[in-house]
Amino acid sequence: MSDLYKITTIDEWSSAVAKGKFMGSALDVKDGFIHLSTAEQAQETARLHFAGQTDLLLVSVLESAVAAHLKWEASRGGKLFPHVYATLSPKDANWVKPLLWDGVTHIFPPEFSA
Question: Is 10 exposed, middle or buried (0-12, 13-18, 19+ CB in 10 A)?
């Protein structure tokens, strides 16, 4: 099993840590699941949906930690994306690192490998 990734704001993750559960972003709540990306999808997700944002974190979640609630569903370009139909526990995070913006693109942390 591999790592899956969630791009979220610092405020959303801080709130999740305080509550003991991550409900997802407003879009996640609206869609009824938490959008995740694989390593191969995360950079394009950042480019398409988070360009210019400077208050972001990249959360690594082990696929095995969410397997019971994980569905792979067609999304962008028909590719299968991991969607979690449950809340996440912050304890499910393998690691949480800043996703920096350099004015042109997001800089992924060294722990991330695509």
Answer: middle
